[in-house]
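Bumping with the actual sequence this time:
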Amino acid sequence: MILQRLATSIRKQDWFTVAIETLIVVFGVFIGLQVNNWNEARQSRIEERGYLERLAEDISVSIEQNERRIEFMDRQDRNITVALERLSRCEFPIEDRDTVANAFFHVGKSLPPALVRGVINELNATGKFQFISNAEIRDAVTAMTETVDSADLVFSTTLARGNPHVVYVESQIEYKVSGARHGDVDIVWGDIGFDQEFVCSDLRFRKALSAARYYTNGTNKQVIEVANAQRALLAMIRSELAP
């Protein structure tokens, strides 16, 4: 309608009206573009918030998994320390027997840092990583992911180096437990058997147990570092999501 009036005004050479109606058209187009841009920006913010909320959930689950791994490997460090002390004296008092049993039973059990990658993989696969407008968060996600990937590679090497020591310790143990068990569930003294006199006098056994502790603690250090990075990242995301 306004274009018809504009054409009529041009034919009549009514330049004032032409100017006014041209401004109206331009202003209308400008407003339309601004509304469209505002809607797109609003939709992007909504989508970004959804990604951040889901990312926070993934990081929270990763932290929980890593905390369980840290607690288990810390416990294994304490158990082996007690076991080595008891082996050096060849004394196994009742109050320490379950501790020694678990030191032997769980020897070498460790896992690399955990990272739930659902949202991170989705952002990378869809090219929407830049939807996260906070560059500090993007950098922290990238750095943390690279640290986990590096830890996975180191873990493979650590596992290969520690396996011979673990195998030797296990070769001296008779396992009396049966059935499916969770890997971190503790046992009691009667669940395993071993020649006390032999393991006390066998320097190789003690060195193998000590080496297994060393490699487990190395893995635990990496898990602790990743868990700390994840806690810092989660705090950043929650701050970004705060009203």
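The tokens above came from a reply further down the thread. The CA atoms of residues 86 and 92 lie 6 Å apart.
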